[in-house]
What does this fold into?
Amino acid sequence: MSSQPGPAQLDIQQLYKSYGGLVRARIRRFYQGEEAEDVLQEVFMRAMEKLDTFRGESAPSTWLYQLTTRYCLNRLRDASRRRELIEEQDGVWWSKPSVGVTQESRLLLEQIWQGVDEETALIAVSYYVDGMTREDVAALVGCSVRTVGYRLEALKKKAQERAGS
Amino acid sequence: MTTELLWDRDGHLHELGVHRLLAGELDGAILEEVSCHLEGCTVCRARRDAVKAVAAEPLPELKFPARSGLAQAPRRAGAEPVAAQASAPAQASAPAPIPARRPIRRWGAVGGVAALVLGGLLWSQLPEPGEFTARGGGLRLEVWREEQGKVRRLQSDDGVQAGDRLGFRVASDAPGELIVAGVDGTGAVYPVWPPGGTGSAPVAATKEAQQLDAAIQLDGTPGAERIVALRCGAPIGWDWLSGALKAEAGAERLPVLKEGCVQEEIRLQKR
It folds into this structure.
């Protein structure tokens, strides 16, 4: 049996009750089945740890959305798992983007898994997979629109170099 | 810098936009704009419905690790009983599991016009039980509808119509006594499982959802159709449950029917 929840846990319980279903929907873009349920628990553990950093500048759904996406991308950092995802063309999230994926986007997405930092991965997924505008990506990630542009250009250049090599 | 965090580059709601909509964070002119767009956009409606369907699934209990720090999965579903069952009286004998994928046996009118218990449906097309793992929420009820020879899982608030044939699956993370009943738009209560209104039957803890040996066909009674599953530590009488459900027939969402029991409800909208 778990111990009595403390104040932070009470807050996280409220968040979980209100937004757990939406978080699970986001997780399903990365994981399926029982693993997705495990990740749901893990994401809320992370949210509990980070609750102090949530100051209400964004809505809870937005905060949890970016936290969930970051967490899932980090969890996928293992190279073999990344390769699996790329090879599972019909299996999981990035083969089912919100907007059409061009060949260039596909190259960029593959690039995401090969050593970019957490923030760049989040920017790339938000832009290429979720189809967000640069302004929305900047708001989600918490950086400037210019930074988003720089990161995307750097990724694109890197992908083009790889494609040409 | 301000941004609505709603629209993607193609002018559709992006996934976060859908989340914000479903979280009820939009209001005023923005909500009106989104609602108007949804009416005419099949892409956005599909995105919204896909997220909504996942979000509507029952949530497992949130477990906290014994010490702080990011934990790996606290547990697999079914590893321990729900808290409500911890204090339940011990069962006199080990309950039998719900039979999996057993064929439905009979037809019979139930509850006047409310529904028919069916036999011989095409539930053989239900996905294998291995795909349906209990998620630790205590009790999970799944409702499936046969559609043109195929079956599809329904979520709360999904639309149904007269003549629809429904099948059921239940996952329980603890043993107990289970009963499933339906309530139609007039408040009439009818037994779903066990069929015949004989009261509850024992179930074992099952990691995978098990198909119930029962199905119904909806009649033309208008209004919401509510399917309720209840698991308790002791046998549940049909008369008691029927009375409790009738008393709460007008409630938007059922209150706790019996302390110490676990319940699950799926509400369908009959068109």
